[in-house]
Amino acid sequence: MSKEHCYYCFDSLVAYFDGRPVSPPTFDDSPFPLFVTWSTSEDGTTRDLRLRGCIGNFSAMPLHSGLKEYALTSAFKDGRFPPIDRKELSSLVCGVSLLVDFEDGDDYLDWEVGRHGIWIEFKDARGRKKTATYLPEVAKEQGWTKEKAIESLLRKGGYREAISQEFLDSVILTRYQSRKVQVTYQDYVETV
User: Fold this and answer.
1) pLDDT tens for residues 74-89?
2) Angle (deg, nearest 10), helices 3-18 and 63-76
3) Where is the AMMECR1 domain (predicted)?
4) Which of 12, 31, 33, 40 is buried deepest, with most CB atoms within 10 A?
5) How far, CA to CA in Å, does 62 sit from each of 17, 135, 182?
6) Domains (ranges, CATH) in the chain?
């Protein structure tokens, strides 16, 4: 895990805006499940970040194609936000999370805030399978207990019914860890 992964995400975004192909990276092309997170910062640092897009994949992907794909997908197709605009570049911070150490949880509370990301499976009122995830830093950044994080994650995943103990006991949880690195646009500019 290195800053080079984030620099490549910035390269991919800038190349897209410039209408040119991105230069191939020099780092290892090992496959990983991964997420790319774009945030903005008023002061150009990694403090007080405002989320602008975060999308990834739990299937291991070669880093070269995966980072390029998800750098652009999270910048332009996260339905929670408008697409990132070129004028935002100077305020952007890129985070890359490589997901590791997946384990089945014994129940919906079998994880640690700040250490584990959580991926849950559940069935909605119509019996359709739904999933949702939070990366390891989310619950800690929000100041959530495990219970509050699970409730929020169920709502994020589309569950609109009352949340009973019986329903919670039916949730299937997978916990995982993440290797994450972040860089600011200024960091990126200083390397090119």
Assistant:
1) 999 999 999 999 999 9
2) 60
3) 1-192
4) 12
5) 24, 20, 20
6) 3-100+179-191 (3.30.700.20), 101-176 (3.30.1490.150)
Which CA distances in Å does 136 have to 43, 76, 130? 25, 23, 20
Share of the chain above pLDDT 90, in %: 91
Cβ partners under 8 Å of residue 47, min gap 6 = 41
Beta carbons of 60 and 76 less than 8 angstroms apart: no
Do 179 and 34 contact (CB within 8 A), yes or no?
Answer: no
- pLDDT digit string (tens) for 94-108? 999 999 999 999 999
In whole angstroms, what is the distance from residue 163 CA to residue 68 CA?
Answer: 38
Strands 31-41 and 117-123: unpaired
| Strand ranges (E), the chain | 31-41, 49-62, 92-104, 117-123, 129-134, 172-184
Amino acid symbol at 144: W
Are the C-beta atoms of 102 and 174 separated by less than 8 Å? yes
Amino acid at 125: A
Phi-psi region of 71 (alpha: psi -120 to 50; beta: other; left: phi over 0): alpha
Binning the chain into helix, strand and coil, the percentages to the nearest 5 are 35, 35, 30
